[in-house]
Structures are given as structure tokens and as C-alpha cells.
Amino acid sequence: MISLRINGTERAVEDLDPETPLLWVLRDRLGLTGTKYACGMAQCGTCTVLLDGKESARACMLPVSAIGKREVTTIEGLSADGDHPLQRAWREHAVPQCGFCQAGQIMQAAALLSAKPRPSDADLDAWMSANLCRCGTYPRIRAAIHAAAADLAAEEAR
User: Are residues 70 and 95 both part of a single domain?
Assistant: First the structure.
């Protein structure tokens, strides 16, 4: 049995090879299907989750044995009601077209804003270049991240 802390809840998974990628545990064992499978090689960012609320990780290649006591946050755990500033900004800026990569994009953006609460365009380009969007909504992604950063700063100032 392996015990994982996912979205604030301790979850035990039985009969699991410790080298199983986190993605398959999330999707197949825990029913958290917001984290998507795409390339399977940690190259596209579609499967991005957060470790300890701030570090992005590619769930398709991360074995559960490597997680240890770290907290895993998926798109489902970012906000209980889908009202995280990034999620609001994504809707307000109509970021998704097909929507497939968007959970990974949002989680990568959350890691960025954790490290750099007021990112420059250069910061955005550097951090977000690891996540691919086949629909090419990069200008909207950039606008949404800047809007979310402003909302988070305003919330902090209150």
C-alpha cells in the first residue's frame, strides 16, 4: 500500500507498483481525470500537477515512489469551486479552444505565480514554454496570467 496526500486528503492506494506514474494513479485509481495524458514523455506539460503547492511536475513520468510525503495538487484541488484567480482569468479571457491542455497550463501558471507573483513577459515565456497548446492560444494565456497575478496581488493587499 502506498499513501499519498492528494488535494489535501490522505489517500491510500493498494496493490500498486511503486514505479507506476502518478498520472495513472490519479486517473485510474483515484478518479481525478482533470490531469490529462498526451505525450507520455514529460514534453508537452498537459499532465502538470503541483508538488507542495508550488513546484510543477509532469505526472506522466513521475513514479509514485518519488513523491514521498509531498503534497500533490491537481486541477481539481486548485480550488474547490473552480474560482481560483487563474481559473477565473482563463474564463474571462476565453483561453481554451479545445481545452485539452488547459489544466496543465493552469497548473504551470500556478507554479509560476508561486515563484514570481508579478511575472514579466520574459518570465511568462520562460515558464510557460514547457507547456504546449495545439490551438495556439498563447496570447490569451499570457493575458490571463497577468490578470490573475493582478487579482492575487489585490487579494494580498486587502
Answer: no
Whole-angstrom distance, CA of residue 30 vs CA of residue 33: 8
- SS3 for 17? coil
Taking the CB of residue 148, how many other CB atoms lie within 10 A of it?
24
Q: Measure the CA–CA gap between 101 and 44, rounded to whole angstroms.
A: 9
Domain harbouring 125, CATH code: 1.10.150.120
Q: With a cut of 90, say whether residue 156 has pLDDT above it.
A: no
Q: 3-class SS at 110?
A: helix
Same domain, 60 and 107: no
Cell of 78: 486548485
CB atoms near residue 90 (< 10 Å): 25
Digit-coded pLDDT (tens) for 61-102: 999 999 999 999 999 999 989 999 999 999 999 999 888 999
Alpha-carbon distances, residue 54 vs 3, 95, 137, 148, 154 (angstroms): 21, 22, 24, 16, 20
Query: What whole-number distance in Å separates Cα of residue 71 and Cα of residue 8?
Result: 7
